[in-house]
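Reading a protein record of the kind used here takes only a little practice. An example makes this concrete, so a full record is given next.
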Amino acid sequence: MEHAVYDSIKICDKQKIADSFSKAAMTYDQHAAFQRDVGTRLLNLLPANLKGKQVLDLGCGTGYFSQLLRERGAIVTCLDLSPIMLEVAKSRCGEVGVSYQVGDAEQLPFDSDSFDMVFSSLALQWCDDLSVPLKEIKRVVKPQGRAGFATLLDGSLAELKQAWGKIDTYQHVNEFVSFNQVKVALAQSGCHSHHLDLPTMVVWYPTAISLMRDLKGIGANHVSERSPKPLCRNSLKKIEQEYLGYANQQGLLPATYQVCMGVINL
């Protein structure tokens, strides 16, 4: 019974995540400069020539990198939890050399040994246990294939988290895994041959509200223990005041991200 309750909570939570990204599908690209930066760095770690290769873009979003993978010659399968995101991806990439599939990274709807490569940028942090999607990635990639993934680590958005911590006790920022947890997940999934890069990336904003607008604009505003009440004007005023303590000499406010980029040889 406990497992059934836990599974129903996970399904409910995944649906909420999908709903958040579906609502953001039409605004995503205009708020996703950081996501494009991360994905570009990850793409540069992978082969430039993918002619004829079957590639899964896991958590494809609006298909920005699906298109770039196809331009490298890949036959791309776009997978996302959000059907609305997939519609946007389809309008961008069309149907020549690209297919589309609604699905969950923890239960990939593909046969084993289906792909030569998996590309997944900033999608796996939405999974409760990183080893589960990594096992699935290993399962669907052919022997001698490769997978590239990027995920956020503990310490990301620390300024925003600390500023909110001075205002109330609710969770306003998602929790992220530690680097050690990534290494454990790789070992548990049997992904033993890998290379990891750990860049710290900072995005600068004129206001705290503009940062939160970007997070909402990409759909990354689902938090499991958020306040049941919408943010009021007074709370927003307080967060702006607290965040000013992190401003640089130009008055810009940092959003610091700890990123893990991994290339797995399978």
